[in-house]
């Protein structure tokens, strides 16, 4: 082992940051979203690799298990590191998908540290870039004007406004385009009866002629409803994302849908690929390095998609800049990335914990950072503030349904709903 490449410590910091009241098929986003920040310190005490993972009690606990396993290992030995973490989690976490969240976050931190040691960017370590800037789609959500006052907490407004009908969604898309230059749009559906969401997509098509559009109801529809929506939006959607649950369900819809079907829900682990491909359930896979085993495994997944003629796009969840940097590096290194990627970043970027400047969303793209590693630097004060918010809030897990029920007690999570 080369001197200086051994891992001394993996520090895990749970954080909370502001999130607007975005609606989805399970309820509504709470005022705070949760993530964990990883700092992988090498034995020189100064090289620190950064990672970012979704938060929540279980994920935090699993990251803490990983932190007990990795000290002493070589930061370049990412295969052995993933295997050691996987073995430590296996007795209590049977799902390979769930274990993948932990190994992925640690791999990103290792790659960042490797880049800092060698003076090369993460995309260089992945084989080099095929594009200098990565295109992202505007991620549109039905939303309330603000978080209503609750339990003595005052209402929390934002500068996006309300979007509860086609006109509101078109206005939000205009703001997204004006602020970030997005050239493609994804609407999070599964909130209103399908015909209202069809109307919103048609309104977007009229307002932004020729721009790629996608609709994702997160499995809120039956097979029959999905077929109806697919017929109605023939020629309007670039792809239809997760209209209905399960691989067989998606396969039934795919038999008659005129547009490609995409998923980040029914194919989320390696063992799902074979049945999905055999049954023709999907035409586009939305990859996500946070659960596919990290950035190198995401590149491998891209090769599988290439081999089987699947299109490739990228999923996102509420996140901050370390994740955006990782998404951008891997997307820049994948030749067969066919469409723009998803990102929640505009909804959360004001509370980022990295030093501003390295990542900018403009013309609908993020330029690939060129500094060593991920090319982003942690802002220790911002991290401390975000950690304080986590501690003070007492919130430990995301609960879109429970939060919705605070305002609409009769609300039920029901998938499919229509
Ligand atoms: O943040 O409400 C949300 C999204 O619905 C998210 O939870 C999904 O994971 O964005 C995601 C998706 O594409 O399914
Ligand atoms: Mg989705």
UniProtKB/TrEMBL annotation:
UniProt pathway annotation: Carbohydrate acid metabolism; D-glucarate degradation; 2,5-dioxopentanoate from D-glucarate: step 1/2
Cofactor section: Mg(2+)
Keywords: Lyase, Magnesium, Metal-binding
Positions of the catalytic residues: 188, 315
EC number(s) recorded for this UniProt protein: 4.2.1.40
Gene Ontology MF, one: metal ion binding
Superkingdom per UniProt: Bacteria
Record's catalysed reaction(s): D-glucarate = 5-dehydro-4-deoxy-D-glucarate + H2O
Enzyme class: lyase
Xref: Pfam families: MR_MLE_C
Similarity section: Belongs to the mandelate racemase/muconate lactonizing enzyme family. GlucD subfamily.
UniProt name for this protein: glucarate dehydratase
């Amino acid at each position: 082992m080369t001197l200086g490449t051994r891992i001394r410590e993996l520090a895990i910091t749970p954080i909370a940051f502001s999130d607007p009241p975005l609606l989805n098929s399970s309820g509504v986003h709470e005022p705070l979203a949760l993530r964990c920040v990883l700092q992988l310190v090498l034995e020189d005490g100064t090289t620190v690799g950064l990672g970012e993972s979704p938060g929540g009690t279980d994920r935090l606990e699993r990251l803490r298990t990983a932190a007990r396993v990795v000290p002493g290992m070589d930061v370049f030995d990412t295969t052995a590191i993933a295997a050691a973490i996987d073995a430590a989690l296996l007795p209590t976490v049977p799902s390979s998908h769930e274990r993948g969240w932990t190994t992925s976050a640690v791999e990103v931190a290792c790659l960042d540290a490797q880049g800092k040691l060698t003076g090369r960017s993460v995309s260089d370590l992945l084989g080099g870039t095929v594009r200098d800037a990565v295109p992202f789609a505007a991620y549109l959500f039905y939303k309330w004007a603000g978080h209503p006052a609750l339990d003595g907490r005052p209402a929390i407004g934002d500068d996006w406004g309300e979007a509860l009908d086609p006109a509101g969604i078109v206005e939000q898309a205009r703001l997204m385009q004006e602020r970030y230059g997005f050239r493609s749009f994804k609407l999070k559906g599964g909130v209103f009866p399908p015909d209202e969401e069809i109307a919103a997509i048609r309104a977007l098509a009229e307002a932004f002629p020729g721009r790629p559009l996608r609709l994702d109801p997160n499995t809120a529809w039956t097979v029959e409803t999905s077929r109806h929506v697919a017929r109605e939006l023939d020629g309007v959607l670039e792809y239809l994302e997760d209209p209905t649950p399960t691989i067989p369900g998606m396969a039934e819809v795919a038999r008659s849908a005129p547009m490609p079907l995409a998923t980040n829900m029914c194919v989320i682990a390696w063992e799902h690929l074979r049945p999905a491909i055999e049954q023709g359930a999907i035409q586009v896979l939305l990859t996500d390095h946070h659960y596919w085993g990290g950035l190198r495994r995401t590149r491998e997944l891209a090769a599988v998609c290439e081999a089987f003629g699947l299109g490739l796009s990228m999923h996102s969840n509420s996140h901050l800049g370390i994740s955006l940097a990782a998404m951008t590096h891997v997307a820049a290194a994948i030749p067969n990335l066919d469409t723009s990627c998803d990102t929640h970043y505009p909804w959360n970027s004001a509370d980022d914990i990295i030093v501003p400047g390295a990542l900018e969303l403009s013309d609908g793209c993020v330029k690939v950072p060129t500094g060593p590693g991920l090319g982003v630097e942690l802002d220790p004060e911002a991290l401390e503030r975000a950690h304080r918010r986590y501690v003070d809030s007492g919130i430990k897990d995301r609960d879109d349904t429970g939060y919705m029920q605070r305002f609409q007690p009769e609300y039920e999570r029901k998938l499919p709903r229509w």
